[in-house]
Amino acid sequence: MKKQQRAAFAAVIILIFILSLSVVSLAAESVKVCPGGMPFGVRFGTGKLIVSGFSDVDTESGGSCPSKLAGLCENDIIIKINGKAPGSADSVTSAVKNSGGTPMVFTVERNGKTKDLTVTPEKSLSTGEFKIGLWLRDGSAGIGTVTYIMPETGAFGGLGHGICDTATGELCDISRGAVSHVTITEISKGLPGAPGELRGIFAPEKSGSVIKNTSFGVFGIIPDISRENTVEVGDGIKEGDATVICTVSDAGECEYSIRLSENPDGNGDTFFVEITDKNLISLTGGIVQGMSGSPIIQDGKLVGAVTHVLINDPTRGYGVTVKKMLESMPDSLK
Q1: Fewer C-beta within 10 Å: the chain N or C terminus?
Q2: What does pTM read for this prediction?
Q3: Per the residue annotation, which of 277, 294, 308, 328 is the catalytic one?
Q4: What is the 8-class DSSP label of residue 71?
């Protein structure tokens, strides 16, 4: 009986040992991705019509802004027009043109409350069309940089931060997000107090889709994106030298020297970035808008992405770890 018990006990130990080896093996298995560095453009709709500004209509009695006179304010969300969903910004313009000057009831949401405002279109002397002097936005567009690509699927992570509403600071609900390739045409250099910017031309055709917008990046699929070389994903950063990959000239993706340091307030997820490469500084002044998402390589591993610039010093900014970006990536894309 004791021999049987000892045998059973030994079998349990062997089983636990085998299971332990399996766990260690899985933990040791490194994640490999293709580093990015190429710019991409994002066009997206928010599913909301938001008032972005006003202009005067040239009427017989002089300049007038019917929408502003009716009480509409910037950042109002148009819920209904004459009791019906407004559709797109173009459909609102069409409805105003065809109103014949008849008053229109705009139902708007403002600070979580709704109210009805009556707007009376006026005829423009220069065009002969009815207008209300209202600017609307139902989406946005911008340029960022791809951080990494999953080699088997073409799924990608980019930006390293979320796309937020400029008025509220909240993450945009990207209901219709399209990705396009971008050709960089101009660089506005960063200066102390004046962030720089990459400017470019969007390819006319859609090349991919955005699936999710998060605080630590945007994620989606670009099926035809280059995914030849792979690198291991690092577990974090260490203080010292590294390189950043970005596209700021006709040469395409290039590596530039940077220095990383810990951010005491970053919980290990964010860190400081300092551009030390004289060539990059001469081209851009440092970190500029559009470089967000540029992958950071340290000790041969992908460890993070550039996210923000310090306003008063464009050579310095912040980064986020790729580990945090991967945690934020939807499981369906991994």
Answers
A1: N
A2: 0.73
A3: 277
A4: T
